[in-house]
């Protein structure tokens, strides 16, 4: 999620800002999920577009991951750290799922995806743009094909292949979603050749950019906070 784009004093502010917007949308999506599946409160806050907001958040993170890959010299290291953290998240949600008997487990969610995407980006970012574009299109169509396939096992779920009984409360397989990361790599190469902001101004410190800059850490602490706030709201208003 959050990563160092150049030096700390020369961060590209619009990347942090967009990541912050994606983070806020993610928090909203998780709050809606909790209300529906944890508290039994049916929601339709945005007239049926709740899923779109969640997907917008995830896809924005993916594209920004690709853009940021062009600026980082440590994609492998960061990717391993993020993926290892995601595995801990799987263990934690599996434990919560077993104790609370709710559908909380995250087998391969956005954090797992981004971790592996960072590792893959380390190699893809070195390729010519036309090759990256070809791989992106291929990844997209492979993903669309995988949607029509069902297996008797879930061991290939990271690629988008799974059985009919597979479940993950957050699920973004490598195919087709790697296409968005590769798109980000292309955007980064075309728009951020000089590795600096494309705007002639800065907006200064603000909460949205703060969320974007620290989104990785905030990802792990936001869910307990959201759950606690919703618990109080549900009790107060007897929802």
Q: What would you note in describing this structure?
A:
This protein is an all-alpha fold. The protein has eight helices and no strands. The chain has helices at 13-37, 50-69, 75-100, 110-124, 129-146, 174-191, 207-213, 215-237. Helix 1 packs antiparallel against helix 2 (50-69), helix 1 (13-37) packs across helix 7 and helix 2 (50-69) crosses helix 6 (174-191). The longest helix has 26 residues, at 75-100. The model has no long low-confidence stretch (mean pLDDT 91).
Summary of the model, kept short:
The chain has 239 residues and is mainly alpha-helical.
Tell me about the biggest sheet? Answer: none
Query: Which structural category fits the helices and strands?
Result: mainly alpha
User: What value does the average pLDDT take?
Assistant: 91
User: So how many helices?
Assistant: 8
Flag low-confidence runs: none
Order of helices and strands: HHHHHHHH
Radius of gyration: 18 Å
Tell me the β content: under 5%
**What share of the residues lie within helices?**
55-70%
Query: How many strand units?
Result: 0
Described by the principal axes of the CA atoms, the overall outline is: globular
Alpha-carbon distance between the termini? 34 Å
């Amino acid at each position: 999620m959050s990563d160092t784009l150049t030096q700390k004093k020369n961060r590209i502010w619009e990347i942090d800002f967009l990541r912050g917007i994606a983070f806020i949308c993610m928090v909203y999506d998780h709050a809606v999920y909790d209300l529906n599946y944890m508290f039994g409160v049916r929601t339709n806050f945005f007239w049926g577009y709740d899923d779109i907001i969640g997907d917008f958040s995830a896809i924005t993170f993916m594209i920004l991951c690709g853009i940021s890959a062009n600026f980082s010299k440590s994609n492998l290291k960061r990717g391993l750290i993020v993926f290892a953290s995601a595995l801990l998240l799987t263990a934690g949600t599996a434990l919560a799922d077993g104790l609370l008997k709710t559908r909380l487990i995250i087998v391969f969610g956005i954090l797992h995806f981004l971790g592996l995407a960072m590792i893959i980006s380390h190699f893809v970012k070195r390729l010519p743009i036309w090759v990256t574009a070809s791989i992106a299109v291929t990844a997209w169509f492979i993903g669309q094909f995988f949607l029509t396939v069902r297996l008797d096992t879930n061991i290939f779920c990271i690629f988008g292949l799974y059985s009919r009984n597979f479940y993950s409360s957050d699920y973004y397989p490598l195919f087709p979603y790697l296409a968005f990361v590769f798109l980000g790599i292309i955007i980064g190469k075309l728009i951020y050749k000089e590795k600096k902001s494309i705007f002639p101004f800065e907006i200064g410190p603000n909460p949205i950019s703060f969320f974007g800059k620290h989104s990785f850490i905030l990802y792990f602490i936001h869910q307990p906070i959201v759950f606690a706030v919703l618990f109080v709201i549900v009790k107060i208003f007897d929802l």
